[in-house]
Amino acid sequence: MIAPCTCPTDPHKRELKNHGSFDFPAACYENTLNTLPVPWHWHDELELSTTEEGSVTVHIGSEIYRMEKGDGCFINAGVLHAFEKNDSPNATEHAVVFHPRLVGGSMDSIFWQKYIMPLTFDRSLPGLILKEAIPWQKELLSYIRTAWEVCAYEGQDYEFAARDALSKCIAMLCHRQKAQTARLSEKTIRQNERMKVMLSFIEQHFAETITVRQIASSACVSESECMRCFRQTIGTTPVSYLKGYRLQCAADLLKNTDLSVSSAASQCGFQEMSYFARTFRQAYGCTPSSYRKAR
Fold first, then answer.
1. Distance CA 284, CA 286 (A)
2. DSSP for residue 185
3. Separation of alpha carbons 179 and 174, rounded Å
4. How is residue 147 annotated by DSSP?
5. 112-to-59, 109, 168, 231, 254 alpha-carbon distances in Å
6. Using CA atoms, how far apart are residues 205 and 246, in angstroms rounded to an integer?
7. Could you state, in order of their start, the residue ranges of all structural domains in the chain?
8. What is the rounded CA–CA span in Å between residue 86 and residue 66?
9. Over the chain (295 residues), what is each successive 10-residue block's mean pLDDT?
10. What is the DSSP letter of 116?
11. Residue 26, C-beta contacts closer than 8 angstroms, at least 6 positions apart
12. Residue from 126, 219, 111 nearest 170 by CA
């Protein structure tokens, strides 16, 4: 079945949601303009995604890609990532998130040792953008769509069909891994790990008054290095990201609770209502009260 797209995380940005069940650890999701953006997070599972309508922006580690209709992506285990809406009026993205043991079995199996371990332990392979214009990637995209459809509609023996399609995806990714992917430098890998720590710090302390120095100190880097990491990984400054995160949290409170607008703003770190109302309108195109009524 198609699960609702929510993304709760722990203090380290690790996603807390269980994808599927213990005996069948796979789930499919649909993101549209109503569920985008999907905030920064990471998980132990692998993720395969396709863009079915419009276009979606995906962040994979320090890289930013725009996926047009027909494109897709692979996101490796443990990799920080996020999805954003852009100017597309009808963006629709399908994702299959599954634990490697679904296709790899136990850790002493040939499937785990020969295929899963080399793929998931490759820190220089955070992910891969897939294009239909490339024949082998077009074939891979068809397997991803098959896996999504059988998981979404749960027909007879769908577990076999899903595992078969996902196994073919893993085999193709492993076969093309060295030839088709650019290797990340140790510097970039280190930067991605630092970003996990700094984003985690912001999530834990966003309701407080925090500074760039404090954000930088959480990852034991200088303020200038903190600024560089944010610009190269997310494309914005720590202050801008903090403001956007606070606004997103405030919007969630307005949509899902009965808190007053002023209380929601205060709980998300906004001390001045006029500033909150102005920045909320800039981000969402309406007042906080109008946003609540519309939802």
1. 6
2. P
3. 10
4. H
5. 27, 5, 14, 37, 45
6. 10
7. 2-180, 186-294
8. 9
9. 56 65 90 80 92 91 88 92 81 93 88 88 85 92 96 91 95 73 65 85 90 93 92 84 89 88 92 90 88 81
10. I
11. 19, 20, 96, 97, 98, 99, 102, 147, 151, 162, 166
12. 111
Q: Which amino acid makes up residue 103? A: V
Structure tokens at 185: 């430098």
Tokens 């890998």 appear where? 189
pLDDT of residue 13: 54
Cα(208)–Cα(284) distance, integer angstroms:
23
Percent composition of the chain: helix, strand, coil (DSSP 3-state, to 5): 45, 20, 35
Per-residue pLDDT at 177? 64
Six token digits for residue 208 = 């407080």
How far CA 230 is from CA of 20, 123, 154, 215, in Å, comes to 33, 20, 41, 11
The amino acid occupying position 174 is: C
Q: What is the pTM of this model?
A: 0.65
CA 175 – CA 104 distance, rounded (Å): 15
pLDDT at 3 (0 to 100)? 54
Asked if 2-180 and 186-294 have one fold, the answer is: no
DSSP code of residue 11: T
Q: Token pair for residue 229?
A: 């990491």
List phi, psi (to 5°) of 124.
-85, 0
Which pair of tokens denotes residue 78? 């443990």
CATH fold of 186-294 = Arc Repressor Mutant, subunit A (1.10.10)
Reference 292, options 246, 260, 244, 245; nearest CA is: 260
What's the topology of domain 2-180? Jelly Rolls (2.60.120)
d(CA 190, CA 219): 11
